[in-house]
Hints:
single chain; about 120 residues; mainly alpha; 5 helices; DUF3795 domain-containing protein
Amino acid sequence: MLEVKNDPSLVAFCGLYCGACKKYLTEKCPGCVKNEKASWCQVRVCCLEHGYKSCAECKEFDNVFDCAKFNNFFSKLFGFIFRSDRGACIARIKEIGLEAFAREMAEKKMQTIKK
């Protein structure tokens, strides 16, 4: 099993921190940015099309919850089941930057900010 490390490239487009995810740590997933099988993820596709490292860089929506790609049924279900607040993650990235967010999440060994 891999160890949690500080790596800004492991911040998912939606704000989750793949570097602390069990699937990433057990090498069952390469992380969001490198996971070409995740073509189903509308957030990932949108960020790649616009050249964004995360939704925090979006120019169209000030509030990520106004974006139908970010705020859809599956993301609401995921957030409910895992008590995950991806919106808070994006807000934190906007506040302190991607590198500091990755460092903070790695130090706390957290994949997401909890609701």
